[in-house]
UniProtKB/TrEMBL annotation:
InterPro entries: Polyketide_cyclase/dehydratase, START-like_dom_sf
Gene3D superfamilies: 3.30.530.20
Name of the protein in its database record: SRPBCC family protein
Protein source organism: Streptomyces chiangmaiensis
Database matches in CDD domains: SRPBCC
UniProt xrefs under SUPFAM superfamilies: Bet v1-like
Lineage: Bacteria, Bacillati, Actinomycetota, Actinomycetes, Kitasatosporales
Pfam families assigned to the protein according to its UniProt record, in alphabetical order: Polyketide_cyc2 (PF10604)
First and last residue of the signal peptide: none
Domain of life: Bacteria
Amino acid sequence: MEWTGARYADKPTLEVRTWIDAPLERVWSLVSDIALMPGMSEELQSVEWLDGAAGPAVGARFLGRSKHEALGEWQTTSHIIECEPLRALAWAVEDPEDPSAIWRFRLRPKDGGTELSEWMQLGPGRSGLSLAIDRMPDKEQKIVFVRLREFERNVTATLGAIKKRAEH
């Protein structure tokens, strides 16, 4: 059976959406408080603002420490690349010009509540996934597919946790 799917260089993406019965302001307060994110993620263990930053603003940086059963433990520096209160928050992991990933929350009013989406892109910069691909180049598409499914599961859980907090 031949495997067909995205390669890392294709900058594969995923997006998950949810509707939250809460106003934009409440949802934004949760999304923009990165200190809450480790409690909503299996992988992300801790985050801390760098350079004296106290919250998100374009150019602000934060350190994230992560852990994965197969990939081990690592830390990355993320750079806020978009910050529009009540609308969008995005960060590039490691080099903003050649990120190993980009993450973005988008909010919009919908049906008396808030539609929240979380989008992410792998690559194009090197990451821990690149090391796995280097070791097994013939399995690149499967490695990318499996990692995207893990991210989809984690993003779905994060959005569920934000929804629960916002609605209660």
